[in-house]
């Protein structure tokens, strides 16, 4: 789209890599199930006392069984999981370079803005990188939505530039 503005699309539909443990509430809990729940509740408390608050919060959310999504602080996650931050940055560079190429190929003489909605990509928070996110999410999926604007050179023979304005989205099935 010519110019410096375009509507950012929504993320594509997310499909978890696995189907999970199956349908919810299909049988009455057994004594073993209740014992497992008590142990999980103890793990929530233990995690809070040992600095694993994010993992504890996620486990508590799971135990609450609301079915609601639980937000993840993606900016903090990027800061604490360098491989995730690097994957996002590399994807942004690729998005920018692709936009520049498309703008050049179209013969654009002014800024051109493209909507961005990348496919879901798998990632993993390793224990070495971030114990917090290793226990809180482990493996997860991420994508980016937003826009990228390609700018022609400001001087003859100069380099094309780009500006990526995306939001990183994370999805994780708690299992």
Automatic annotation (TrEMBL):
Biased amino acid composition, Basic and acidic residues: 25-36
Chain intervals with Polar residues compositional bias: 115-124
Name of the protein: Uncharacterized protein
Organism: Brachybacterium nesterenkovii
Region (Disordered): 1-36, 101-126
